[in-house]
Prior knowledge:
Elements: E1 7-10, H1 16-27, E2 31-36, H2 40-52, E3 57-61, H3 67-81, E4 86-89, H4 104-132, E5 136-141, H5 154-174, E6 179-186, H6 195-198, H7 201-210, H8 219-230, E7 240-244
Parallel strand pairs: 1-2, 1-4, 2-3, 4-5, 5-6, 6-7
Helix pairs in contact: 1-8, 3-4, 4-5
The protein binds nicotinamide-adenine-dinucleotide (NAD).
Amino acid sequence: MTLKDKVAIVTGGNSGIGKAIALELARLDANIVIDYLVDPTATEALEREIAELGDQSIGVEADVSKIADLQKLVDAAVSRFGRVDIMVNNAGIETRTSVLDTTENQYNKVMDVNLKSAFFGTQIAARQMIKQGGGGRIINITSVHEDWPMPGNTAYCLAKGGMRMLTRTAGLELAPHNILVVGVGPGAVATPINLSTMNDPAKLKQLDAAIPLGRMARPEEIANVVGFLAGDGASYLTATTIFADGGIMHSSVGL
Length: 255
Ligand SMILES: NC(=O)c1ccc[n+]([C@@H]2O[C@H](COP(=O)([O-])OP(=O)(O)OC[C@H]3O[C@@H](n4cnc5c(N)ncnc54)[C@H](O)[C@@H]3O)[C@@H](O)[C@H]2O)c1
């Protein structure tokens, strides 16, 4: 399977799952637009890693909670590589606050970075895909929490639940254009977003015990799913979510 001549945008692409996705799509021969908000040095290092794989990439600083910045990502892809074939809406944040404590500012930020960005990222990428013709893939990195409530993380669950319905509804609307919209729902993945758990041995032990496969995922294990979804093998998958969660959603061991 190859993504030769395809162009992918990966939001939040210079760390964690996004970085692993950028590398996996490059390994499959796609050219990559790496969106980042912070850490240009990490982005430049990733650009070099991708060049070593024989592919091209550009880092573009863009805040995905702003529609103009999402447009900037698509414009950069078109001006540098001529097209957009794969849009990965990956950037995300969480506040770990309950429904009782979440402030308006926290609520807005979580909704904007996770859900608004995926909505308008889908819209802007799909408009370009329709303009250039030939279909495309939109891959939304959601979470098991698109479906599975997590007390103490209410706004995040709400945003990921919204991404679930975005995936399903946009998948139906865009199907006539052969633009496939699929969610990837990770369980617990060893990335910076989980540092507080990873740095607390007692919490980590409790988490591992709740996961049927007995451990957190490596970011590459999520990226592999995205690589499959971006390719020819996934030509009949749309408006649904693939969960890569080590079985945790169906585990009988509570967190
Ligand atoms: N790690 C997990 O256990 C896990 C589980 C389920 C879902 N996810 C989802 O996977 C995605 C990636 O998370 P991660 O685990 O790699 O964590 P991460 O913190 O390494 O990645 C998040 C990325 O988003 C970027 N970002 C944040 N705000 C942004 C903005 N306004 N504009 C552009 N970029 C922005 C960050 O700079 C970072 O690069 C997120 O959507 C997250 O919700 C992660």
